[in-house]
Amino acid sequence: MKVEIAPTNQALPPKAAAARPSKWRTFYRKLRKNKLAMVGGCIVIFYIAIALLAPFIAPYDPYEIDLVNKLKPPSAEHWMGTDDKGRDVLSRLLYGTQLSMSVGFVAVFIGAFFGIILGLLSGYYGGWVDTVISRIIDVLLAFPGILLSLAIVSALGPSLFNVMIAVGIFSIPVFARIVRGSTLTVKKLEYIDAIRSLGANDFIIIFRHIFPNILSPIIVQATMRLATAILSAAGLSFLGLGAQPPLPEWGAMLSNGRDFLFTAPHLAMFPGFAIATLVLGFNIFGDGLRDALDPRMKQ
Amino acid sequence: MMTTQTNPTKKPLLEVKNLKQHFPIKGGILGRTVNHVKAVDDISFTIHEGETLSIVGESGCGKSTTGRAILRLDEPTGGTVLFEGQDLLAMSKKQMRDMRKHLQVIFQDPFASLNPRQSVSAILGEALAIQNIVPAHQRRERIIELLGYVGLRPDQIDRFPHEFSGGQRQRIGIARALAMQPKLIICDEAVSALDVSIQAQVLNLLKSLQKQFKLTYLFISHDLGVVRHISDRVMVMYLGKVVEIADKKSLFDNPQHPYTQALLSAIPVPDINKKQERIILRGDVPSPINPPQGCRFHTRCPYAIDRCKTEVPGLTSLHDTHQVACHLAQV
């Protein structure tokens, strides 16, 4: 029996490369199906829009003191009432969105930036590099986040900027651990060996080939971390270590409203509600992202 | 006795001498090295320019490890690997990076060996850029040319790996190796993951490319049919050792080592009238952590004598192109 073998240099029929849905389209479809995630996404987009539009939509100047109209309950003029210095709560809340968002994004950026670098180095090189970095991360993880940031802020002095740094630092180990784990998985794949056997240096391998392939867990973690960062920053401001008066930071507003909890409950209620919904929004959106991007990562 | 065969008509391209690859096993609380897996234990062989040497053996015998050690994808424990007379293992990381353009590798799994986020042009363009083989403005033309060599169309240049079939992806992997204009290509189970019909196509492609570009192959496989199709010489490994190395004809027609004989008897013969004696080995492959004393095969060898249990057999020449490591071989 003679076996015919197809001539080699003939191109394969084009249908062999049948179009499979791209990775992003699958991701988007999965995300769209997840109702809860879409709600979370809408909340997040809503708050981002507010942060961007605050100067245009705020009815009053958030710093304008009007002692005649202090501690007014919600009314047609002041939708969310006024605080103990007669400032419009709604305007302060809208401007506060900018502060909370920037704290969240800056802190997560700091945490992600250093966490990713440490995680990549320790995962890729292993050995003593990994041992040293992992032990440092273990030490950072051993502290409860809020305690660690309390210590950092008290060392640096109370200000909103220092809160960003503190929250950023306590986010580093979380990112570093996730990146380290993903790097360990990806670096064992054959295409990394293939790139190395082409003669690529470590820099190319790490940043051009490993990093883009571990982005999904990083994006998910960053979204979830935004919620934690905003909550921690509000917590620190509530304790008086973050935003200083008269900044309309939500945590500081909440702290201020605490003194009038019985006479003017709206002072604490609205900032509290804003913090809760934004954190909730980021969390459920992050959950949805995780399910859509990387179903195996479910904890 | 331990030297591998010398063929006066051919120039050696790669000479592997006493290559050892022992992987440490960490244990205990302190993570100390408690033992070693002797994946490759003191093997020597030579590949001549323009030939195809195959390494066969069952899973875990060290054939892939040998390939990876030669490329320094894992750093070997000991030995020398001379490529055109230069010792690869003695080179610095930087020297080795420059050297890599001469030694390429084609991997087993065409789904894992291409970065899913890079298009074909990015994959091949990067290969050309890393070693700066072709100036930037000529790269696209060169990529199209490379695709032509491996039987892909120029219009597929901007597609991503997931848009290709397994066989096509393996062709991209081959094109990537070819981009370097290498002298030696290590094919690590290069066709094992493909359908039989595609296997034949890819094998024939490899053969025609070998002729066209005067390539030398180190072909690692567990499939004796494939090995028979592509090799000039065949090396049989068992538990980290070379048991037999010979030209293809001599090995398939006149296997000397009992392990080779058992392997070859497992090839099905498509003839119902032909009675074939099947040699069935008993037991499992012993652990490479504590390999048997003496001949490593003696625990499963049907002909083992007392000498096999104590004395390690060296490779002895049967004739010019056939060497075997067995005390009972009729030398």
TrEMBL record, chain A:
It is a multi-pass membrane protein. Keywords: Cell membrane, Membrane, Transmembrane, Transmembrane helix, Transport. One of its GO terms (cellular component) is plasma membrane. InterPro entries: ABC_transport_permease (IPR053385), BP-dependent_transpt_permease (IPR050366), MetI-like (IPR000515), MetI-like_sf (IPR035906), OppC_N (IPR025966). Residues 97-286 form the ABC transmembrane type-1 domain. The keyword Transmembrane helix applies. The keyword Transmembrane helix applies. The chain crosses the membrane at residues 36-58, 99-124, 136-154, 160-179, 226-247, 267-289. CDD domains: TM_PBP2. It is found in: Cell membrane. It comes from the Bacteria. Coiled coil: none annotated. Pfam families: BPD_transp_1, OppC_N. GO terms for biological process: transmembrane transport. Belongs to the binding-protein-dependent transport system permease family. OppBC subfamily. NCBIfam families: Opp2C (NF045474). This is Diguanylate cyclase. The lineage of its organism: Bacteria, Bacillati, Bacillota, Bacilli, Bacillales.
UniProtKB/TrEMBL annotation, chain B:
The gene is oppF_5. InterPro entries: AAA+_ATPase (IPR003593), ABC_transp_ATP-bind (IPR050319), ABC_transporter-like_ATP-bd (IPR003439), ABC_transporter-like_CS (IPR017871), Oligopep_ABC_C (IPR013563), P-loop_NTPase (IPR027417). Keywords: ATP-binding, Nucleotide-binding, Transport. GO terms for molecular function: ATP binding. It comes from Brevibacillus formosus. Transmembrane segments: none annotated. It comes from the Bacteria. This is Peptide ABC transporter ATP-binding protein. Residues 14-264 form the ABC transporter domain. Belongs to the ABC transporter superfamily. Pfam families: ABC_tran, oligo_HPY. The keyword Transmembrane helix does not apply.
